[in-house]
Amino acid sequence: MSRVLVTGGAGTIGSAVVRRLLADPSFEVRVSDQRVAPGWMREGCEVHTGDLRWLDEARRAIAGCTHVIHLAAIVGGIANFHKLPHTLTEVNNALYNAVLRAALDHAVERFTYVSSSMVFERAQQFPTTEAHLPDCPVPLSAYGFSKLTGEVYCRAAHDEHGLPFTICRPFNAYGPGELPDDEPGIAHAVPDLIAKCLAGLHPPLPIFGSGEQTRTLTHVDDIADGIVTATASPAGLNEDFNISASEELTVAQIARIVWEACDLDPDAFALTHQPTFQVDVQRRWPSVEKARDLLGWEARIDVREGIRQTVAWLRERPELRVAGR
């Protein structure tokens, strides 16, 4: 039986990964997160709450584990990238230093690093293949650079010390589990748009930029399945994968899907355009062939159904009802 440490396991993607692991009896799960783990997680997993930026804590978290899925990081929406550039770089790099060193010390069988589509922030090839990375211009955002740095750490640990690794790059995660934020752009776009629609705002619905930017929304349950599949597969060893759906949608199209999923009048749909941020990726559309060919994995949840699920989940959140949404 494999014992898997999931760092950042109480987050949105982390929770989905933990649920996916617990559904497979071949895995035992340990979660490391400084946030409070929900009851179902505490019942089904070991829970470590130390600060993984410290090597001794990282060693304690990994001790006895055969696999590590490293999700712990400062993340968030586009505003977070601009608001906390030094903080996220400092924290994420400290995590790489300690967690990778501890993984080497404990000779784990597989270290899965969960990177980000933001390493392809300045992609020039569409659909963007994994092989495009060496030719892709370096990200301008601190967040994109910090996630790319994590990939470099993994490959360096492999080249020097033989670390067995897998890199997974989720694209535009959405789904139940992430709450919106009162400050626009701190949370990701989907919960932010849903909150605006559920608040009963009259049209037009505000979005950042022209709305012509494209995204490839991928449900967190699909992302979790892709990460676990890549981690467990021999074909995933020392490889990198785009973990994504395949449908490219404009932000305006996504806003309309959210609008209609919130049971608002389709004929009343309209948008207003707010100034966007310095770094706002204009096109994001990955190739998904490598994961399909090597892992036999592909995303399965249609974006319209997934957004309906997310709307239903957010409708039930007491936090939103208290806020009058």
CATH superfamily of the largest domain: NAD(P)-binding Rossmann-like Domain
Approximate shape: globular
Can you summarize the main beta sheet?
Answer: 7 strands, parallel
| Cα Rg | 19 Å
Determine the number of helices (DSSP H or I, runs of at least 4 residues): 12
Number of domains: 2
Fraction in beta strands: 15-25%
Beta-strand segment tally: 13
Structural class by helix and strand composition = alpha/beta
CATH topology group of the largest domain: Rossmann fold
Secondary-structure element series: EHEHEHEHHEHEEHEEEHEEHEHHH
Tell me the name of the CATH class of the largest domain.
Answer: Alpha Beta
> Helicity, in percent?
40-55%
Description:
It is built from twelve helices and 13 strands. The protein is α/β, with parallel strands linked by helices and 325 residues long. It has two domains: 2-173 and 219-243, NAD(P)-binding Rossmann-like Domain (Rossmann fold, 3-Layer(aba) Sandwich), CATH 3.40.50.720; 175-215 and 248-284 and 301-322, UDP-galactose 4-epimerase, domain 1, CATH 3.90.25.10. It has a seven-stranded parallel beta sheet with strand order 3-2-1-4-5-6-11, with helices on both faces. Helix 1 crosses helix 8, helix 5 packs parallel to helix 6 (142-161) and helix 7 (189-198) crosses helix 9 (251-261). The mean pLDDT is 93.
